[in-house]
């Protein structure tokens, strides 16, 4: 049989899914029915009566507000004829709100709904679908609407978020990005960069670009183009425009490995790049990579091969280095990796796919930093001679 707690929980859900949207649509209150479980669990009459009394004790009949009950005489298997509650319902809005303790909340909700729709009538459907978001942000709507109003008037600001001339706290937009994004998707839909997910890019704002960290492995190039500096970090857009006389690029997964690339055997016409895991995404539009020898060196684990597949998806000529079964078997120290839900990778060779499956099945990992420098230097000295 339904319990008082179950009645409360079901009423809470109806309040959100049915009652609040009806207020937005200005519908008169309709009898709100809570479906009851007509089965019973007690086999003795005293226990059965106790269940019934628990339900009645929280009803309007006993408390003067809340849900009403309708009973029907039912023939039970072990207790004979008994009166079971067949209908649980709220007659009016006052009973519902007092039962839930939502009187003040609803008054604030009504006020905010009026304010929002007055400012932006096109948000009415959003409110109907998301009433709880209106409630959860009840103290913020004045400032949220200020932000929406600014973007409505200036859909392409080309400013940083904290530069926007809106009279709100400098961090207000950043703290409310999710909600503001939902609203702006509706309010300025014709001005969006729909393919972009990041807030700044989507809504025509300036943003801090990711940095590409790289080391120049050819001393002559470092001296000619960077005044001898060989460890450099620049924004993606600047990296995409570089015009260096190089033939080879080595992308490494981890920062520690980048630090040691200058100990490699001499590599003329080459640079090493810190890929930073899945951040190799930032390199996908580097068009000058197209005709270069691209080498990828990552951890020998599931994620390392997933990143390799990702990078090779951008540049098909990419070759993996030091990510083979021989290296793994020689230096593996029984370290555990991270679980993955990815089933297949589209851009691996047959040998790489076989090793990937082994690593994934056993959750194994060999980090690239654990491969001894002597072995690395010997590999690069033998396999990739200076040009």
Automatic annotation (TrEMBL):
UniProt domain Wadjet protein JetD C-terminal: residue ranges: 208-376
Pfam families membership: DUF3322, JetD_C
CC annotations in GO: chromosome
GO molecular function: DNA binding
DUF3322 domain mapped to chain residues: 4-184
This protein's name: Wadjet protein JetD C-terminal domain-containing protein
